[in-house]
Specification:
- The protein is built from eight helices and nine strands.
- By secondary structure, the chain is an alpha/beta fold.
- It has a single domain, classed as Vaccinia Virus protein VP39 (Rossmann fold, 3-Layer(aba) Sandwich).
- It has a seven-stranded mixed sheet. Strands 6-7 form a two-stranded antiparallel sheet.
- A hairpin with a 2-residue loop joins strand 6 and strand 7.
Length: 221
Amino acid sequence: MVLREQLLENNKRQTCMDEKTIVRAGYDAIAAKYLKTRSEDSEDVQLLQELVQRLPKGAKVLDAGCGAGVPVTRYLIKFFDVTGVDFAEEQIRLARQLVPGAHFLCQDITQLTLADNFFDAICSYYAIIHIPRQEHKELLLNFQRMLKPPGLALLCLGADDLEKDIHVYHGTRMYWSHYDTETNLNLVKECGFAIIWSKVVADSTSPGASHLFVLAQKDCA
């Protein structure tokens, strides 16, 4: 029985690694092309004003899954001390070039070991939806750990139920996995956050697609 459980766990880890390899390789391959699709005028990027209105200038903000740093990190750096993290090397190379005022780490956001109670806010756009959904709870708990109380989290999550999907995206293979809106809202609460607001927003880079955006606060109770 123990051996069988170990084999199942090993298979599960290998599957997650394979799926993350698809995402990493995909975003490295389309880095320049994807960058051209992003706009600071889109509705999703305008939601960043919520952080500007609620945080003091110079606050420490983590951009988890920052990609090439445009437009999200570039917007945030106007107001805050920003650390961007992404595991796609070409994306980070571009980010360091395009947003030289920010700090960048080339790491998997599910493996971050940054200090407890360190950031005033964590922002994550179009990254969590590419992570196997069985890892989402652990990721959100880690975000909660890294936030100072009562820190803010502005998160892009799935709006519908999708256990696993792999298809061509901007000319390369890409992987998605996420829960539906209600499950995600409950999950955010279970991970120690109080939800300030949530809304479904159209994806500016994929016509017809939409995602759940949530602004939440670290629950100090």
